[in-house]
From TrEMBL:
Protein name per Swiss-Prot or TrEMBL: SDR family oxidoreductase
Stored SUPFAM superfamilies: NAD(P)-binding Rossmann-fold domains
Chain segments annotated as coiled-coil in the UniProt record: none
Pfam families with a match to the protein in the record: adh_short_C2 (PF13561)
Length: 263
């Protein structure tokens, strides 16, 4: 039990990577605060885990008061806080033509500002337990896809925040801050998003080697397995680090000109 008796807030944990992290954390002995926007989906995860090991809080991270409320939920339910996973994010298509100020501010509010506010609200309690923060970023933080402009900007900001606070908070408060940058992950949302872009219902079953050398893309549970290391005491004094979780190098790799092989 690598997370025995630890209390962990996991934002965006009603689906996808966040849900996988929550389930794995409980398997490793933790108690979790589930969060999301979908009450029905959240209740399903809560039922799967059990109310003695989890509590659900539905709220919009774009509202500044949500950060403090989530911390209070953790303290009321379990009496302490050991870790925070900033996973929730708006994954929305945009480019230079259709990204205006209001849209960019909306994406940044959830993907970059909310994690900072959550860290700030959690910090007094994390310093007591010598806890840690794990930010879930994206390989798009390094440059991003052309149609993911606002999202990529927000993840680039999150990565800089991780490196900054990973040094400052560990030195001052003993609180580690690290980040994992997942590549292409087969979440429920991603399956639906690609279908909305015109791909078939089974697009993920036949991908070019360029995108999936293994023959498939990453599963959420594989991201969750990596998250456990950073959340556990096994991580030791490592802080301010960002780790890519993708099956091919991000630098020196050129995408094929013809992407029609993705169906």
């Amino acid at each position: 039990m690598r997370l025995q008796d630890k209390v962990i807030i996991i934002t965006g944990s009603t689906t996808g990577i966040g849900k996988a992290i929550a389930l794995r954390c409980v398997e490793e002995g933790a108690k979790v605060v589930l969060h999301g926007l979908e009450e029905e989906l959240g209740q399903e995860v809560l039922t799967e885990i059990g109310p003695e090991k989890a509590v659900l809080y539905i709220a919009d991270l774009a509202k500044e008061e949500t950060a403090g409320q989530l911390v209070e939920v953790a303290l009321k339910a379990f009496g302490k806080l050991d870790a925070l996973v900033n996973n929730a994010a708006m994954v929305v298509s945009s480019n230079i033509e259709d990204t205006d100020g209001a849209f960019l501010h909306k994406v940044l509010a959830v993907n970059t500002v909310a994690p900072l506010l959550l860290i700030k609200a959690a910090l007094p309690h994390l310093s007591e337990t010598k806890g840690n923060v794990l930010n879930i970023g994206s390989v798009n933080a390094w440059s991003g896809e052309p149609n993911l402009l606002a999202y990529s900007i927000s993840k680039g900001g999150l990565m800089t925040m991780t490196r900054n606070l990973g040094d400052a908070l560990f030195r001052d408060k003993g609180v580690r801050v690290n980040q994992i940058n997942p590549g292409w992950v087969l979440t429920e949302t991603e399956i639906k998003r690609k279908q909305e872009h015109g791909l078939s219902e089974t697009w993920y079953k036949s991908l070019p080697d360029m995108y999936a050398p293994s023959g498939r893309i990453i599963w959420p549970k594989e991201i969750a397995a990596a998250a456990v290391f950073w959340l556990s005491d096994e991580c030791g004094p490592i802080s301010g680090q960002v780790m890519e979780l993708e099956q091919h190098p991000m630098i020196g790799r050129n995408a094929p000109k013809d992407t029609s092989t993705i169906k």
